[in-house]
Amino acid sequence: MNVELVAGLAGLVGLVGGLATGLAIRFSEAAQGQEPLQEPVQAALPPGVASVLSVLPSSAVVVDGEDRVLRASSAARAFGMVSGDRLIVEELLALARLVRRDGEIRETEIQVGQDRHDSRWFAVRVAPLGTHGLVLVLAEDLTELRRVESIRRDFAANVSHELKTPVGALLLLAETIEGAADDEEAVRRFSGRMQLEAARLSSLVQDLITLSHVQGDEPLARDRPVALDEVVADAVDRCRMRAESRSIELAAGPTEGIRVRGDEELLVTALRNLVDNAVAYSPEGTRVAISVRRSDDEFVELSVTDQGIGIPERELERIFERFYRVDPARSRQTGGTGLGLAIVKHVATKHGGEVIVWSREGSGSTFTLRLPLLPEDPRVTENPVQEAVQ
Questions:
Q1: Do residues 372 and 299 touch, judged by C-beta distance below 8 A?
Q2: Which of 182, 317, 320, 340 is in the most buried spot, having the most CB atoms within 10 Å?
């Protein structure tokens, strides 16, 4: 690495760490027995700085004494901070002028873009860069961090609310039973209600535990070949009693020995959640079909089709969010926790797949788990999907 490039690196590293870069450059020049650069502004950018800027993870812009952009990283242009040779974000331009005037390093956070869906947040650091009024602007994208923090806050608030309801109901029922100790009929009735609320609380806690296991980046705890016929049979068996109580037929098609790699219990949980959801939102006396087919040489699709009320198109993008309910009143009636579809989405992602939904109001819905086939499996002839709904 040549001496000039070392000088450029030293200058930028010192700036990012909050040191006076101009002093570092002068020190480098003095070490080489040179006088400080006195060339025109266009030549004042230290050699090698452009190479350093190109590898910085932050958006970086260097402006001269006349607010012209001498260097700008591709990220800075992509985020709309720079157009041509001008810094077009007014807040950044104002900060650059202040720093040029008094030489003090400044830090702040700004929002670029007015639309809440497209705007991005940045942590900005602006500092002088050598002589000739050069100023360096570094902007670190905070958008994803803010989104995650918002999700965490919402999740904590939602969990508190969801836990509060059954716990409050249990306390109230316990007090009621205590006051009606001499009335056997009332005790039986209220104890039955307590069992329902306790079951709801247990389901919520179990779903929270499952969600915490599948939404992280950790590898699957149990990763082995899984036969889909066992997954389908187990999921259907767990949902059969609830379906029969509402006269809903569960029809499962053949799997023909298709296998995937993953955690069998998680896959059963995901498919059971889809079947449970289909049963909960279907009219009595209808049918829920579970089918398995190879979509191509690499993926298999598990589909659950119902004849239910369907999902409004405007809601389709949000149904996999935690605690999001299309119809909150109906969810309370069915005892849903609001976490089932979020678990399905994370289980699919954890297995290298995805979940797809088709729905039309009044015509039912089809949820499809698309999972990678087990690589060691021999080629299996694609079997047609059993006709979902007659």
A1: yes
A2: 340
